[in-house]
């Protein structure tokens, strides 16, 4: 797939309520190096739970750790925030609007990880760009690409 595609939170919530899933992130940093992260027991809460992000305890991958946590782990149990629905942990701003963070995400305090940010081709340090901060140095800012994939754990 060469274009943007989002299955949708309603479908993800329905699917992940049926059985246990894992989620895999394939990332390409600004130098086009590949990294990955896999989280077990991935689930999205239903709409009345604001599509809360739920992750299992098991992590594998080389996408690195961030602030004594894994990049996505710091967003665990967060609600999905969009321009018009502010459910992040910041009282002072809406993370989806701040710094042009792009589309919605399970923002905690606006940082660490946002794969729905703006695509900048990995050429600058746009604060609203796609990011996975736990990658080496500033390589986690302004990613060249990302893929999120889920599969059932049978």
From TrEMBL:
Q: Which SUPFAM superfamilies match?
A: Fibrinogen C-terminal domain-like
Which InterPro entries does the record match to this protein? Fibrinogen-like_C, Fibrinogen_a/b/g_C_1, Fibrinogen_a/b/g_C_dom, Fibrinogen_C-term_domain
PROSITE patterns in the record, alphabetically? FIBRINOGEN_C_2
A single GO cellular-component term on record: extracellular space
The Fibrinogen C-terminal domain sits at 1-154
* Domain of life the protein comes from: Eukaryota
SMART domains per the record?
FBG
Recorded protein name is: Ficolin-1
């Amino acid at each position: 797939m060469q274009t943007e595609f989002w299955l949708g939170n309603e479908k993800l919530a329905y699917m992940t309520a049926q059985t246990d899933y894992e989620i895999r992130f394939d990332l390409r940093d600004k130098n086009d190096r590949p990294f990955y992260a896999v989280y077990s027991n991935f689930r999205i809460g239903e709409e009345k739970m604001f599509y809360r992000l739920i992750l299992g305890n098991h992590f594998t991958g080389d996408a690195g750790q961030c602030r004594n946590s894994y990049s996505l782990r710091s967003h665990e149990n967060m609600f999905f925030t969009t321009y018009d629905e502010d459910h992040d942990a910041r009282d002072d701003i809406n993370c989806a609007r701040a710094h042009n963070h792009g589309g919605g995400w399970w923002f905690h305090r606006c940082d660490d990880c946002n794969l729905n940010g703006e695509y900048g081709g990995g050429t600058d340090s746009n604060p609203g760009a796609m990011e996975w901060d736990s990658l080496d140095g500033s390589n986690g800012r302004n990613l060249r690409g990302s893929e999120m994939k889920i599969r059932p754990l049978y």
